[in-house]
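Session log. Operator J.P. requested a structure for one protein chain; no other inputs attached. Running the standard single-chain path with token output.
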Amino acid sequence: MANKIDIKKKSSLTDKKTDKTYIANNNTFAFGKENYLFISIGVCVLAVGYMLMIGGGAETPDTFNPEIFSTRRVTVAPITLLIGFGIVLYGIMRKPKSQA
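Structure written below.
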């Protein structure tokens, strides 16, 4: 029979130099509201970029459809994807404003 292990989390931290007690806040999100806004906008731009790549296939395997090499699929969609990835990266790396 396995023994029950009791693990207690420290709910406060004490600074030895200043004798101040800091209470850990476990109810915070990883990012701020603006960060999540940038990330969601970036994901929407990524979805648009992938939708721009859709299509261009041939009806039968014996025929060639030159539409697969259109400017929309070869140039516009990859640029849109790079912009979307850039927005998501900015949303992740952006430092949230302090809420003091």
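Operator note: The mean pLDDT is 82.
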